[in-house]
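User: My instructor asked us to take a sequence, write out its structure as tokens, and then describe one feature of it. I'm not sure where to start. Here is the sequence I was given:
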Amino acid sequence: MVKISLLSLLFVLTLKAASLEESVVHILGKKSLIQNKGLISVIFKDESKFKTRGRVDLLKVTKTLKENDLLDLKFPSTTKIKLNFATKQNEALLFVKLIKDTLISLGYNHPLTTMAIRDKGGFLWQITLNTSKMIDPYSLVKELEKRNAVVTDIIRYSKSNYRYNIDTSNTHLKTVALEPNQETKLKKPLHPYWIDVEGAKSITLKSLGGNNWHPYIIFYDHDLKIITNYTKERKSYNITLKIPSNAKYIKISDLYALINLKRGLIVKITK
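Assistant: Let's start with the prediction itself. The structure tokens for your sequence are:
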């Protein structure tokens, strides 16, 4: 019952666009709004500055709140925080990858999944992290927008519990940029390489000297559903693979550990 209520509440809130005042209340909470009512009324006096295409621009709102020290984010000690991410779109795997990439870009590498719900209303992913500071809403919104994901509402349930409603209808994953039919040298990876291979016919991978590469390669479609994979337990130097016609992404890693790619790879996609 609790899970259903959480999801239902989320999507009821997204049926209509929140006003600027409602958005500020959702981010700060009523108590903080009352305590800082004077300052808030001044900095948000001109509502038109905080709207884009008729909708409240949460990047501008969170930036203004941050600049005026209205986001109370620090904890006295390491605290377990709860973050809820939700979207009306049903591409759950793509959504989780999007959020993970965004968190990694902000320095948060190991979120623990505590809830994942998908139904006809959309998808909700809840995670926990141990940190001495709540993730900065402005930085999170900014990183998501780099991937064409739009935050439509931020809801502060408590100092350690936030929810982000996200429109991912135009989103994309952060991938390595390659020029077709040209070799590109990729540096030592901190995370698996992700490459957009849509429309390409084949991919050639060359392992550089000093590597101990055991290929672990997965092809995905637009929704991040696995199409096929290629693995090899023996050390490899050069491989060429045919790209499935419905492939959108390829993930390149090592079967055992990324350190085996310490010299990087040379990659070429052929269209």
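For the description part of your assignment, you could build on this observation: The longest helix spans residues 92-105. Try explaining in your own words what that tells you about the chain.
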